[in-house]
Design brief:
The complex is a heterodimer of chains A (about 110) and B (about 250). With about 110 residues, chain A is an all-alpha fold. Chain A has a single domain, classed as Helix Hairpins (Orthogonal Bundle). In chain A, about 65% of the residues lie in helices and about 0% in strands. Chain A contains three helices and no strands. In chain A, helix 1 runs antiparallel to helix 2 and helix 2 runs antiparallel to helix 3. In chain A, about 40% of the residues are buried. The longest helix of chain B has 28 residues. By secondary structure, chain B is mostly helical. Chain B is globular, with a radius of gyration of 23 Å. Classes of the chains: A mainly alpha (about 110), B mainly alpha (about 250). At the A-B interface, helix 1 and helix 3 of A face helix 1, helix 2, helix 3, helix 4 and helix 9 of B.
């Protein structure tokens, strides 16, 4: 058990709770963002090596220290930007829906229920 | 109440799924074999000091192309949702504004909507900081193969410079045509650079068709700085475009 992945899992759970219980669409998007952050924290933690340093070979790294795994870092680096773009897309939908119907309450949008 | 109960059950199930991962989690004692291989090869094969950049641009370059495509799709989605609304006249009528004013002088409209406009401090600070941020963003993506940073980070810094400029001068319109041209050109050159790697070197997005140079110099690591700069310009213009489109939604 380690603290950092526990924090990541906690963020995922908090975000899921927020997405499921909030009726305000903006808050649901915020819930998604929190899940996103939790997943990033978790993936970065997967690549950590005990006592590891950043995998940058500029001669500044202490001799003998292991490098952390660069693959999860690379994945998270792109995932953060994708998360930003997806959040922007969701917010655009929210803005559009709110302009059309004049409310942010998700329960008002009965057309989307089956 | 029933909804809350269902939500609680779902979240509890999710937590139960994550629990074994958290409880049994141990950090690696040594760099995993794949990562160690990448780090070693990024020095010997590519001459890139930053192994993360080597992974993003070269070893997982196809993934990065996919990510850039997702980014483009999301941005196109934002543009689609918003421009469709702006072109439909009945929405403007419904909101009590005439179609003529809607299509006409947007700048005066914007300043009257924004209240008193930006304060002196915001205007001066944005004028001072925006060029510095542009330069810093360019620095980050040009040095992506040497220092922590790269196209995605530098692109976001450039987008934030544009956002600051928008805050400082909400009346000014961005040159949409120029932005789209830059975005398309950088996206196309990313693919062209990839194909050049296919033709001149070992495979798609292989940057070794340019000389590796001396390790740690700015002009080193083959085509990695060029590819990452192109990615940076694309990400920067795309994200700036998203913010600008959301703003134009607010205006009408």
């Amino acid at each position: 058990m380690q603290l950092i992945p526990a924090i990541g899992a906690l963020l995922i759970v908090i975000g899921a709770w927020g997405m499921l219980t909030q009726r305000n669409m903006l808050k649901m998007v915020i819930g998604f963002s929190i899940i996103d952050t939790g997943v990033h924290v978790m993936i970065v933690a997967l690549g950590y090596v005990t006592g590891g340093v950043a995998p940058i070979l500029d001669g500044e790294a202490p001799v003998g220290a292991p490098f952390v795994d660069p693959v999860p870092s690379a994945l998270v680096l792109t995932a953060i930007v994708i998360g930003l773009a997806v959040t922007a897309l969701m917010l655009t939908y929210v803005v559009r829906l709110a302009r059309t119907k004049g409310t942010l309450e998700v329960s008002e949008y009965k057309e989307m229920k089956w | 109440m029933a909804n809350r109960l269902i939500a609680l059950l779902v979240v509890a199930g999710l937590a139960a799924m994550l629990l074994p991962l958290v409880i049994g989690f141990t950090f690696h004692e040594d760099t995993p074999a794949l990562g160690a291989e990448y780090i070693e090869r990024s020095e010997t094969d590519l001459g890139a000091a930053n192994a993360v950049t080597a992974v993003v641009v070269t070893y997982r370059g196809l993934d990065t192309l996919g990510e850039v495509t997702v980014l483009f799709a999301a941005t196109a989605g934002v543009g689609f949702v918003i421009t469709r609304r702006r072109r439909t006249p009945e929405f403007a009528v419904r909101e009590g504004r005439s179609v003529g004013a809607h299509a006409g002088i947007e700048s005066t409209e914007a300043s009257s909507l924004a209240g008193q406009g930006p304060s002196e401090i915001l205007r001066t600070a944005s004028r001072f900081l925006a060029p510095v941020l542009f330069l810093f963003g360019a620095y980050i993506f040009v040095h992506g193969h040497l220092t922590p940073g790269g196209g995605f980070q530098g692109g976001v810094v450039i987008a934030s410079a544009v956002v600051l400029g928008i805050f400082g001068a909400p009346d000014r319109q961005l040159a949409h045509g120029t932005m789209t041209t830059i975005e398309s050109l950088s996206g196309a050159s990313y693919v062209v650079l990839g194909i050049l790697g296919l033709v001149l070197a070992a495979g798609f997005l292989d940057p070794t068709f340019l000389p590796a140079g001396s390790f740690g110099a700015l002009a080193s690591a083959g085509a990695i700085p060029i590819i990452y700069s192109v990615v940076g310009i694309k990400v920067g213009t795309e994200l700036a475009g998203v913010v600008d489109r959301l703003r134009s939604q607010e205006q009408d």
